Amino acid sequence: MTTDTGRVAGKKALITGGAQGLGAATARMLARHGATVAIADLNLAGAQAVAHEIDAAYGAGSAFAYRLDVTDLTGWSDTVARAGSDLGGLSVLVNNAGIAPVGNIESVDLETWRRTMDINVDGAFHGTRAALPLMRESQPGSIVNISSIAGLVASHAFAAYNASKAALWMLTKSIALHCAREGLDIRCNSVHPTFADTPLLEGLTSGTHEERTAKLARQIPLGRIATPDDIAYAVLYLASDESRMMTGAELKLDGGISAM
Ligand SMILES: NC(=O)c1ccc[n+]([C@@H]2O[C@H](COP(=O)([O-])OP(=O)(O)OC[C@H]3O[C@@H](n4cnc5c(N)ncnc54)[C@H](O)[C@@H]3O)[C@@H](O)[C@H]2O)c1
User: pTM of the predicted model, to two decimals?
Assistant: First the structure.
């Protein structure tokens, strides 16, 4: 008889962009359900604060924090090596770090376009390539790419963001099929949230937090924006073996937007 200590007990997870927002909620969620987690972010102090909080709740060695710019190839190999050593392997990679600049096809400048692609697409490309050799040794594995409903449904005002999240959506499927063809028990799926209550929303519309939330909620059939945990629960499912038949799929948490 085995003891079930958690939905992701024994999993070793690396989460990018985990200093705040959805990444921090995911790190807390996976730790709460039994995983050990490594949080990698440009913002080291923020990542350390989340890791300390997790260690305080679940014991020292439950969480680790690193500084990483996901666009930096060398940084990726160092981070994966550190995570492998601190966690004792790597079975889950959550490519979450991302930016969402406002700009339509005429107003977005080339630098912003390239930076968005660099972080939102190349970041996951580098991360997956860096992590796969180690993940082969810790199967079953799961890669979760945080795309967006903006990767499936366009808006006039987010040319670079729409394009980057659509690219990440399709990259996810290619990774999934590659792993399957290689005979690996490593799955790859994408998550597509609608507006979620994180600092990222501050740059999207003006007004107070309440005004912003109410304005965005009016665009969603369910009439509310997501909490970070609404999204983290989806990542928990995809990271766990409960989703073992799911690969190359997209999980929409859009409050009904794409049903319209
Ligand atoms: N919040 C939403 O409404 C929403 C909706 C759909 C999808 N998403 C996606 O979810 C992910 C997380 O979003 P969030 O709302 O938590 O954003 P956020 O801005 O609150 O947090 C993003 C985190 O990523 C880090 N980061 C940014 N660039 C980085 C880089 N180059 N290298 C490493 N870390 C970097 C930041 O320091 C920050 O800690 C993003 O990919 C975003 O596009 C968010």
Answer: 0.98
Domain annotation covers residue 140: yes
Q: How far is the CA of 1 from the centre of ligand 1 (A)?
A: 41
Is-contact 232 26, C-beta < 8 A? yes
Could you tell me the pLDDT band of residue 1, with boundaries at 50, 70 and 90?
A: very low
Query: Does residue 214 belong to any structural domain of this protein?
Result: no
Tokens of 222: 């369910």
Active centre residues (catalytic): 161
Tell how far the Cα of 73 is from the centroid of ligand 1, in angstroms. 19
Report the nearest atom of ligand 1 relative to the CA of 118: 31
Say how many Å lie between the CA of residue 24 and the centre of ligand 1: 10
Domain count, the chain: 1
CATH number at residue 131: 3.40.50.720
Residue 208, in any domain of the structure: no
**pLDDT tens digit sequence for 43-80:** 999 999 999 999 999 999 999 999 999 999 999 999 99
Give the pocket of ligand 1 (CB within 6 Å). 16-17, 19-23, 41-43, 46, 68-71, 96-100, 119, 146, 148, 193, 195-196, 198-201
